[in-house]
Amino acid sequence: MRTSSRDQIVQVAYEMFQRSGFHAVGLDAILAEVGVTKTTFYNHFPSKDALIQETLEWKDRWWQETFREVLRKHGGDTPRGQLLAIFDALDDFFSCGGFNGCFFVNVALQYPAMHSPAHQAAAAHKRAMEDIIRELAGYAGSGDPQALARELSLVMEGYYVTRQVTGSTEVGEVASRVAQRMIESSLA
Length: 188
Fold this sequence. Notes:
It is a single chain. By secondary structure, this protein is mostly helical. It has two domains: 1-45, Orthogonal Bundle (Arc Repressor Mutant, subunit A); 56-187, Orthogonal Bundle (Tetracycline Repressor, domain 2). It has ten helices and no strands. It has helices spanning 5-20, 27-34, 38-44, 48-75, 79-84, 86-94, 103-110, 117-140, 145-166, 171-187. Helix 8 crosses helix 9. The longest helix is centred in the N-terminal third of the chain and has 28 residues, at 48-75. The radius of gyration is 18 Å and the shape is elongated.
């Protein structure tokens, strides 16, 4: 099945933004990579900012869906198993090469103003990820699913940044041990 020019623009923009940053990638470079004209672009998006928003929404949908799938792959069908598999799942994502940090952390850093639509999209993504973990924690029988979700989310953020800054693949093992203690304590 052929990908639409709109979808191609979004996917190429994502790859270029992830690799080089939002401010460093110009619209002309994206269009040249996709092989479309500005007219085609403007038929789909009113501006580069609109493309950025669409890219963030597309990546958020993809990330949530894929994260749930990879949690099931590593943790099986039980919520407890999926909670314990969080860092195995993240290692899957970030071991395939091309890791340049968490896309949404990078967004928040490049658009630091809290009122910026891009920053707000990054914050919404982080809340959605926390919601996934809170839901699993509730089904697993946590005494306080919200607290466990916040704690695990904080460890995940530490994982992303430490992995990006140091390049260490051992970060997942350390984060997994910390998470296991937190999960066992919350489910006891």
